[in-house]
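Q: Could you write out the predicted structure for this multi-component system? I'm mainly interested in how the pieces pack against one another.
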Amino acid sequence: MTSAPSAFRDRILPVLTVILAILVIWHVFVVYLNAPFVRDQAARANEEMTFAQVVERTFAQERPILPAPHQIVAELWDTTINKAVTSKRSLVYHAWITLSATLAGFAMGTVLGIVLAIAIVHNRAMDKSLMPWVIASQTIPILAIAPMIIVVLNSIGISGLMPKALISTYLSFFPIVVGMVKGLRSPDMLLLDLMHTYNASQSQTFWKLRWPASMPYLFTSLKVAIAISLVGAIVGELPTGAVAGLGARLLSGSYYGQTIQIWAALFMAAGLAALLVSIVGMAHTRVLARMGVKP
Amino acid sequence: MNGFLVFALLFWLGAWGLNQWLVAQRPKDPTTRRAIGLAVPLIFGITLLVIWECVVRGFEIPSILLPAPSLIWARIVTSTHILWADFQQTFLKSVITGYVAGCGLGFLVAILIDRSPFLQKGLLPIGNFVSALPVVGIAPIMVMWFGFDWQSKVAVVVIMTFFPMLVNTVQGLASASHMERDLMHTYAASWWQTLVRLRLPAAWPFIFNALKINSTLALIGAIVAEFFGTPIVGMGFRISTEVGRSNVDMVWAEIAVAALAGSVFYGLVALAERRVTFWHPSVRGGRA
């Protein structure tokens, strides 16, 4: 009954169908949400409009409630390809500002997370006392206090990339600590005993057994961490009226009612997130393949 | 070196030594063991507060940069009515409503698409993709659509919590093994019976995982959404305006409330998890 699995039928087709359905629903909503404004305008100008005309105009509004996909694509095209990358109107420029803060925060978060995890695994007192507070630290909505961190750091002379990167660090170290603690503890008791019978030192056990064993956990955490690093960098741009970065684009779009600008920035951020996660995913497969792990 | 810093150092060393000693103890009595398990992180937390207080006083850091815990506490005590109003607006209205609606919707959709493998294959990758996206970015759009009051924050929270719930529930529903499903089949159990008796119980650990993730996401979403416009009440509003007016102690008071609310919320979900999934290995081992 079951035929050979095909990547197209089992993976691509369902996803394409769902995307198509989303696009159809989207267009319906574009008409539904934007029509009142179009009708209003027509009534004011004493125009009689057929339904087809209404639909046509809902797709081409300047400040729609919900822009049509083609408008967003046009805006993206206009602000990425048609503008010089150094221009303040180029989305590439803004994306780069956000990306640099993301990457800096991600790198610091990874180092901090790994160091904390190593300390927690090797010291019982650290495990007992630090771990609950690492978890509690995440219930503090850092995104909520991001404005304060930025303002405070600004007042002592730290501004620009660093405050945003610190917010990203705070968000990204947590999944890495949790994943690495689990990963460093994942070697079997038997293997640990074997290392013991070899009279391996603690550092030898670490480098030859625990560290390699933790790699799958590390990369899974890294995927989560890089995505939320981006969120941290974007939110870090919201307060203090930052003028550059994707978050600043969202904010200025919100102030001036430029819906298309907001959606374009949103899609840029989404694309960036997808790109970053897939890069980490590729590194994951690469490293595990080098280590001889069969997928 | 002044007195405060010396005291902080001594206190830290003392607390560290005490913790080292405490974790080395292996009492037979379970109550003592539990007391030690509680005391160790508590001592660590108190140490942090003491060091914070002493560093602020020792280096004479101006309170506009970092207020001492005692100042923050004084502010909390004197402005409980403001904190309570903000808490009501942000937590009770936006977070709770959005959390219940978002999680409920994710759960229902997961059960609906459970019968269609085609939809599952299509929706899951997209759901996973969407949950990796910076969803807080939709906050300005939601504020435009639903107005400045708490309704727009609910919309943001619903969107943020929907996908983790959907993805986890679908995965959980698929986690009952074939043997168990075949057994239900031999009992001539209907689809509903199989769902309620077998597959939902098997899915609980996954569902609670989503509930825990969402408990912090919901709070973050609601507070961030308030940056894009809000009536003159709410935790996000208070934080952004008091920063502008340089009342950093008020901001920290608000943070303390948010942290407390978030921890209690998380704790309640974790407690419910222990009750519902008492059979799961991670709970039986006492490490939920």
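A: Regarding packing and overall arrangement: The longest helix of chain B spans residues 80-114.
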